[in-house]
Design goal:
Blueprint: E1 11-22, E2 32-44, E3 49-53, H1 60-67, E4 75-80, E5 83-84, H2 90-96, E6 100-103, H3 117-128, H4 134-147, H5 164-176, E7 182-186, H6 194-211, E8 214-218, H7 222-228, E9 231-236, E10 239-245, H8 246-251, H9 256-263, H10 274-281, E11 315-316, E12 324-325
Parallel strand pairs: 3-8, 3-9, 6-7, 7-8
Antiparallel strand pairs: 1-2, 1-4, 4-5, 9-10, 10-12, 11-12
The protein binds adenosine-5'-triphosphate (ATP) and magnesium ion.
């Protein structure tokens, strides 16, 4: 996809931080602070898919939840459609949320078991009050139901009667019923059987074309990301370590961590050398006690003394606009 640098992004996130505090009580001892998201900035353009990748615990879900404000960010700004979404409250927030939705990993727990499929799909329009009469409500439900390929006869049933793939379709129908510009997809297919994954991924792509949706697509499956993404950001311990087009990241990765992440994709028939195995499985430091300097230096095969002291800035690399990495060893 052509990268529209001149266009205003639909979503612009600046210096986003989310710190979780725990402990500090009389018995629990010292107070700890987990810097789950630590100064993350990015743009999302109209109709594109921006993937967020990185190992478990690097802050992918916290980034998404902070952007949509399911959890309140500690710091940072979130501009949605040119409005300061991060500062909205009450009715204004409710209204702005019609334009940004989230799809969750677990289609089992993200649907209320006591609600019918019809009421689950209608939840966003019921909350927003965006229908005049029952007919309009039903029309919107049926439209969403058809768009995700759910059988209309299923609308009066309950989530437990469905397979994982069908439940995820219900979750997608709920997310698109108000035709939002932005959908945050947090590992939307990881809980599904491999045979179903491709179907759901293709449905998301089809809906994107039809409704011109912009996706933030969180996944640890680089194969799925390669299929889905236009651009990719790579996170490590709450930081963005590399950002670029899909081609930049997959064909010409620059950050040592990105290279490692790509090498760890299992390739059928290719044995991973013992040394690499060690690196890949090397312990990830705790975000409650991150390393000094570059957060990746403790696992990095190229780390120099400087890396343990200076935190590298995300800067343009490779002479390609939009391809950025945070590493001082790249020349
Ligand atoms: N509610 C919370 N309270 C305290 N710490 C939290 C909370 N939620 C997440 N964390 C911590 O924040 C860090 C980032 O977590 P997050 O869930 O965003 O990672 P992730 O990249 O989505 O991982 P995964 O791939 O496993 O889903 C982790 O260290 C996690 O333990
Ligand atoms: Mg997660």
């Amino acid at each position: 996809m052509e990268h529209k640098t001149l266009a205003e992004p639909v979503l612009k996130v600046r210096n986003l931080k989310k710190y979780y505090y725990s402990g500090g009580g009389f018995l629990s001892g010292k107070k700890t602070c987990v810097k789950a998201v630590n100064d993350v900035s990015f743009e999302l353009y109209k109709g594109e898919t921006l993937a967020i990748v990185g190992e478990s615990g690097c802050g992918k879900s916290t980034t998404a939840k902070s952007v949509i404000r399911i959890t309140e960010p500690t710091e940072g700004s979130i501009m949605l459609d040119g409005r300061d979404f991060g500062k909205l409250k009450g009715e204004e927030l409710k209204k702005a949320r019609q334009n940004i939705k989230m799809i969750f990993q677990d289609p089992y727990s993200s649907l209320n078991p006591r609600m019918t499929v019809r009421d689950i799909i209608a939840e966003p329009i019921d909350i927003a009050g965006s229908w005049k009469d029952k007919e309009e409500r039903e029309r919107k439900i049926l439209e969403a139901c058809d768009m995700v390929g759910l059988n209309r006869d299923f609308l009066d049933r309950y989530p437990h009667e469905f397979s994982g793939g069908q439940r995820q379709r219900i979750g997608i129908a709920r997310a698109i019923i108000e035709k939002p510009e932005v959908i945050l997809c947090d590992e939307p297919v990881s809980a599904l059987d491999v045979s179903i994954q491709a179907k759901v991924v293709n449905l998301l792509k089809e809906l994107q074309k039809r409704l011109n949706i912009s996706y933030i697509f969180i996944s640890h499956d680089m194969g799925v990301v390669r299929h889905m993404a236009d651009r990719v950001i790579v996170m490590y311990l709450g930081h963005v370590v590399e950002e670029g087009s899909k081609e930049d990241i997959f064909e010409s990765p620059k950050h040592p961590y990105t290279k490692l992440l790509l090498e760890s994709i299992p390739v059928i028939g290719k044995e991973v050398p013992e040394d690499d195995k060690e690196l890949i499985s090397g312990d990830i430091p705790s975000p409650a006690n991150p390393p000094s300097g570059c957060c990746f230096h403790t696992r990095c095969p190229y780390a120099t003394e400087e890396c343990s002291k200076v935190m590298p800035e995300l800067r343009e690399v490779d002479g390609r606009p939009g391809h950025k990495a945070a590493c001082v060893t790249i020349v």
